[in-house]
Specification:
By secondary structure, this protein is α/β, with parallel strands linked by helices. It is built from 13 helices and 11 strands. Helix content is about 40%, strand content about 15%. Strand 4, helix 7 and strand 5 form a beta-alpha-beta unit. The chain is globular.
Length: about 350
């Protein structure tokens, strides 16, 4: 089966499998005190061009919970996009673990938060009756496959810094974002003032695992204890770290993410010629969002699983992965033609 449902459906990169096998040779110190984890932390510091702290975690929700909980108290509030994963798709885990109030903000037509919308929500500072805003989270690439530019991120960061608010990035697909922008990871994290990052690995081709990257010195003080408290400290951390090591070696992440993005562009070009289909968002990473005739869902999903993203309009999400091929795109297009 080949799927357009999620990059989570894809398998594991061969280089990652090899790294896991190599990490399985002999014994190593536990809980992140091993040589592999130390080496990969150094690689990540080079990637971000900063003296970041690195915490390896099991999954994306865990990364977000650890990031947000390390930057907030239970009387705080968190601002996020109304379409964000932390608001819609993590079964209230961030709220449950942090005790914070989450306020969703309306995104623009490109599924991104804008400074004026954020500014309007910065209210009631110092009001003891109101959950005090302490963190804003953006997703890069967004849940609709669009990408924040460095300039857009810098503008948001400036607003947050002037209001003593931490800047979190959910980077579950940050590799796709950087590949799409043609920039370095540093240019959309360190250089724009991100305080803490949930760095995605699984969607990029790892078997499991993500990482929390801490830029802000204030957030480095107690996060190690939070790491354990939120149940994300792996005893055999080297098996997460080794996978990131493979992704970073010779910028493997850029070639695989670039390939997934290119396949999304090819898919977009195929879909755009069908008058029954309307692509709803710019294609800037590895996803295509489009409205299709509702009666196409079942026959197409039988061969190529995908998700209906908005039921009222039958907007669907089609994601490409590191192992999506041109033949997969052509076969999907042929299946569409057969329905007409």
């Amino acid at each position: 089966m080949k799927s357009f449902a999620s990059d989570n459906y894809a398998g594991v990169l061969p280089q990652v499998m090899q790294a896991l096998q190599q990490a399985n040779d002999g014994h190593a110190r536990s809980y992140g005190a091993d040589d592999i984890a130390a080496h990969v932390r150094a690689q990540l510091r080079a990637l971000f061009g900063a003296d970041v702290d690195v915490y390896f975690v099991f999954n994306g929700t865990g990364a977000n919970v650890l990031s947000i909980s390390s930057a907030t108290q239970s009387y705080n509030s968190v601002l996020c996009a109304n379409i964000s994963h932390i608001y819609n798709d993590e079964s209230a885990a961030p709220e449950t673990f942090t005790g914070c109030r989450f306020f969703p903000l309306q995104v623009n037509d490109h599924a991104k938060l804008e400074v004026p919308v954020i500014q309007e929500r910065l209210v009631r500072r110092g009001d003891i009756h109101y959950a005090q805003t302490k963190l804003l989270s953006v997703t890069q690439a967004t849940e609709y496959g669009t990408v924040y530019s460095p300039a857009e991120l810098r503008a948001i960061s400036a607003l947050l810094r002037s209001n003593d608010i931490f800047f979190h990035m959910d980077g579950s697909r940050i590799f796709n974002a950087a590949a799409g922008l043609g920039c370095s990871i540093k240019e959309i994290t360190t250089d724009v003032g991100i305080d803490i990052l949930s760095l995605g690995g699984t969607k990029a081709g790892m078997m499991f695992g993500e990482a929390v990257i801490v830029f802000n010195d204030e957030l480095k003080k107690h996060i190690a204890y939070k790491h354990k408290q939120v149940m994300q400290l792996a005893s055999k951390t080297r098996f997460i770290a080794a996978q990131f090591g493979a992704m970073l070696q010779d910028e493997l992440w850029r070639s695989t993410a670039g390939h997934a993005n290119a396949m999304a562009q090819l898919l977009y070009s195929k879909l755009s010629v069908h008058p029954e289909i309307r692509v709803t968002k710019p294609v800037q990473a590895n996803g295509v969002f489009a409205t299709i005739p509702r009666h196409w869902n079942e026959p197409l999903m039988a061969r190529f699983p995908f998700y209906v993203w908005a039921e009222p309009t039958n907007e669907v999400r089609l994601l490409c992965s590191f192992d999506t091929t041109e033949a997969d795109i052509v076969a999907f297009d042929e299946a569409i033609k057969a329905l007409k």
